[in-house]
Amino acid sequence: MRMRLLAAGVMVITGLCAEGASAQVVADEMRFDFTLSIGNTPIADFQNDFSTSGPAAGWSYLYNANGPLGTPSNYVPLTLSGGRYTAPSGVLTVALDPAVDPVAYPPTFPFPPTFPTTLVRPGAGSLEDPAGIERAAIIAYTITAEDLAAAGATGPAPVSITAYDFAVSTRATPDGMSARIYGGNNPTPLIEFSDDTVPPFFFPPGFRFETTLDPDPIPLGTYGVGDTIYFALGANNISVVPEPAVASLVAAGALILIARRRR
Known about the structure:
The structure is a single chain. This protein has helices spanning 2-19, 46-49, 145-150, 244-261; strands at residues 30-38, 41-45, 59-63, 76-77, 79-81, 84-86, 93-96, 118-121, 136-142, 157-168, 178-183, 191-193, 208-210, 218-223, 228-234. Strand 1 (30-38) and strand 2 form a beta hairpin. 41% of the residues are buried. It is of the alpha+beta class. Strands 1, 2, 5, 6, 7, 8, 10, 13 and 14 form a nine-stranded antiparallel β-sheet that branches. The chain has one domain (2-261).
């Protein structure tokens, strides 16, 4: 599995350099999708459930306007405008866009040729906040009684990610994007890809992490009615325009870290 992940990442980098897309960086962006399941029963799918007229039951689209990630009281809803959910800056956005830029998202073996239609633009990270706190777009799902009943559970039940797709645009800034998953009020991420980890471990420009690499369910813990799982996607703090060589070096470094973590 370690070698499959490393090889796939190298192919993405090769495509990024060949296209020269990183010389035309506009902003951090990730096409993103995931499925949550209880046992063999899917209970929520971000892309399938996404609504441009208001969040579907169980879903919330937020950002940490009032402080650091990991504290749900810091989160406030994004504003629905023109079918998109945005922060006051107008840059931090959660949206649906079926038109996929083939330069920003080049198809790469062994992944599927298509990309998610749901996307996240996290804005300028720490530059979004006067205190320098990294702002992030947050996709949240709250477990319902119907979810537990559908899975045949009579109380709190284990929830897992059973499908996922994190695809970072080749036009992203050189430090790529951060991704953290939180459970309930626990301030410690269940899963984290960011500069905050030791060693730093983030999603570089042009990188894709998708179910093909590891189809086994990813356990997130046990949840009952009203408990919430938060996916926080950030800009990883840097907001500059990279040269192609810089983006390639950063991405290559991240791949080495991925290989080390898989050991």
